[in-house]
Amino acid sequence: MSCIVVVGSINMDLVTLAPRFPGAGETLLGSRFLTAHGGKGANQAVAAARLGASVSMVGALGRDAFGDQLHAGLVREGVDLAHVARIDHEGSGSASITVAEGENQIIVVPAANACVTPAQVEAARETIAQADAVLVQLEIPLDAVEATLRLGHLLKVPVILNPAPAQKLPHEWLQLASYLTPNQHELATVLGEDAHSDFRDLMRRAPGPVVLTRGSEGAWYQDSAQPEPQHQPGFAVDATDTTGAGDTFNGALAVFLREGLPQAVRKACAAAALSVTRLGAQGGMPRRAELDAFLADGPRA
């Protein structure tokens, strides 16, 4: 069983289904509203746990109704929350999501997620030291992200940095990451490059290994063993909701990294494909048996 630590955000997703995205100043009638547990950190933790990993999380929740629900949901998924703080003076994070035509638009309010600290990361040192991989994203303060990268590097534990929401990052941080997992826009932003550049050129300019997601096209990856970008095709499915697909990919990548990067990327693409066939960031995340059956049936790539 893989042991995974996730340092990241925990949000309540407020999801509206609509026939299309509204224009500026326009009001549309939606077809459905629901709340769902989310946050990039929590999503990746749930994805990894459902695929059979032992998962611990470092993060923060408000001491409010959303916080209680989110805490209980992660416990049900088997995620260890010993390093998740409850914050008295802040509400829990939220994300307002509009889903239309199989795509999504998202606005995130960090709230308690902005209270995650380097001290929390350091307090989880023993847990991180025993991990097979650590996942971290950019929905928490950057000093906590840096602390995670430095601690993982010091302890020689692979750290997967998912640079979303995208922002330019110090070159040194990218060198500390074992793997960078952006899409093309995120990679260009992180590197401070033109987003219209060829994505393979962007990958070559990165200071460390990159696993680049390309939606339905699958993913491209390179590291010291595969210095030139290699392609893993996507898997053909009928998409219902792409929310959480990237988080499913990252969680799966961490779980299967011990099998080698090519195999991990293949399984991550398959898990992400399965995730878009159902509604909700966490709602569509597959369990290990479902992923194994999907791959065994010879899905069309």
What does this structure look like?
The protein is α/β, with parallel strands linked by helices and 301 residues long. Helices cover 35% and strands 24% of the residues. The chain contains eleven helices and 13 strands. The strands form three sheets. A six-stranded parallel β-sheet has the order 5-4-1-8-9-10, with helices on both faces. Strands 3-2-6-7 form a four-stranded mixed β-sheet. Strands 11-12-13 form a three-stranded antiparallel β-sheet, with helices on both faces. The longest helix has 15 residues, at 261-275. It is globular.
Distance between the termini: 28 Å
Largest sheet: 6 strands, parallel
Low-confidence parts: none
Strand order of the largest sheet: 5-4-1-8-9-10
Computed Rg? 18 Å
Number of helices: 11
- Helical amount: 25-40%
Mean pLDDT: 94
The number of distinct β-strands equals 13
Question: What is the beta-strand fraction?
Answer: 15-25%
Strand-pairing-aware structural class: alpha/beta
Shape: globular
Order of helices and strands: EEEHEHEEEHHEHEHEHHEEEHHH
